[in-house]
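Morning. Coffee machine broken again, so started the prediction first thing and wrote up yesterday's gels while waiting. Chain of 340 residues, entered below exactly as on the submission form.
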Amino acid sequence: MVSETLLNDSECAPSADKDDSVPHLVSVLVRSSARITLQSTLESAAAQDYPDVEIVVAAASGADHPPLPDRWNGRSLRFLSSATPLSRPAAANQLLAAAHGEFVIFLDDDDQWYPWHLSTLVKALRNLPEVGLAYSKAMIRDEIGRDCGALGVRAHPLTFAEQSPMAIHAALFRRMLLEHPSVRFDESLELLEDLDFFIACAAQTPFAFVPEVTAVWYAASGESGHGVRGNATSGAREQGIARIREKWAAHFARWQAEPMGQLDLAELYLRNGDQVRAERMLFIASKHELKQQSLLNRFLMLCQEAGLVMSAADSESSDGGRVVQMYTAVRTAATTGQNE
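Came back before lunch.
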């Protein structure tokens, strides 16, 4: 069973028994359509404070992509030319096959990183050898340069059935994951291929979330389909989500049996204003014993947020009584038709 690891500040700190002095190569993979932003993207990759980096660029736009030098601001650069245009997933797979690094990360030609991005994520993976992918937050920036919040939350893989908790360039993964044939981009997908790839990774390894903004996502540009304005295709996105759910149905069924996933999904529904589905997921979670205090506390908080029980200030009952009270409230909401 795949679990998830949450990194807090102490877990991101260097461990005494780990040697951080020897850097390991990071392959930075760029799907390029020769946008005007490509130069800024490459400068962002070259400006990382992490020492051992190779940049690999795939000419997704085909033969009309201009050639690139073999070094960019002192960093090694390899350019993969193509006689024909490549789809986003095809370009991604070409780049995966060309990566040499122990660690691999994507950076599309319209996005950027802060200089500490790679060093932050490499440190996370070194400190957690059982984890295969670490991700951070990305600042969301609109087409005129305004910051509009951040993308990136700790999320159980069950929530991937609804949306991705991260931008693709916020996630660093071990190249050894590619030993699994399923960890590739699905070239039959026209949208949400990045989300599909993350699900393939989650089927093989726990993820670690670093709650720090280290990247910038220009959500209105690009062609992923899950951004905003020109990069948002809601109808096609719903079809893509349905297809991904069907493809990974067995994994989602297994993840749905895990209380952490149920609570993460309930929180996602509440955040998106979907009260009905949030209550349904809380009802499912209420059937577990929830022996861990952290799960109990989170269940209490979400039930309270959903308006299913009185607040602590209004109750004189013990913690155990409050738990029973909330179980009853969720079950009542479900059986009276509020969750239909």
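Confidence is low (pLDDT under 50) at residues 1-22, 227-231, 310-321. Going to sketch it on the whiteboard this afternoon.
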